[in-house]
Amino acid sequence: MEEQDKETQIERIKTIYSNIVRIGHTPYEFMFDFGQFQPEGKNAFMDVRIITSPQHAKAILKALKGNIAIYEEKYGKINIETDQDNDEDTDQQQDQRRKS
Fold it and tell me: How wide is the angle at C-alpha 78 spanned by C-alphas 72 and 84, nearest 5°?
């Protein structure tokens, strides 16, 4: 019965493709906006926002680091051609620049 419940839960998960993420935070939460960047139109369409606690955000970071290490052991180093997706400003950085 428990195995069947797990399968049902997985089937209910909404799946999206993301090649861009925007991250912001407050003292109480982290916000991750996932979406797709369309180079031909130079537009980004954000599809989903995940809001979580700082503790859970740090746990996600730890899990990502571990999984990337396992992936690179198995498939080789992940090379990032551009830092475009990684250097996107946080909402707070954009707000600070506007105030300056």
Answer: 150
